[in-house]
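This section describes the prediction task in plain terms. A model, or a person checking by hand, is given the sequence of a single protein chain and must write out its three-dimensional structure as a string of tokens. No templates, partner chains or ligands are provided. The sample shown here is typical of the held-out split.
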Amino acid sequence: QVHVVESGGGLVQPGESLSLSCTTSGSIFSIVAVAWYRQAPGKERDLVARITAGHSVDYADSVKGRFTISRDNGLNTVYLQMNSLKPDDTAVYFCNARLYSDPQHWGDYWGQGTQVTVSS
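The expected answer:
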């Protein structure tokens, strides 16, 4: 069993900051990458940022320069620091872990999501 859990969502005003955390645990051989996605009501779930075991990072154009994805040693805990938040950032934020439970079995695992609301 693999568990992915997000935390840190909440209600903030435009221009403020918020930090999200993602913790992956359970039967894991290795984690390939961890990514943050978000989904606003009526919209598709979109990639926000991704970080890999090799420390590569990618950001959606809409958050580049404002959001920072980071990790502890390893990918078991990943953070998303969100600065200069805008109302358009309002969404449920999901953490996705791509991992191998053993060398022959891999899959994507999702957290339950955490709500981020940016409003005055």
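For orientation: The chain is about 0% helix and 60% strand.
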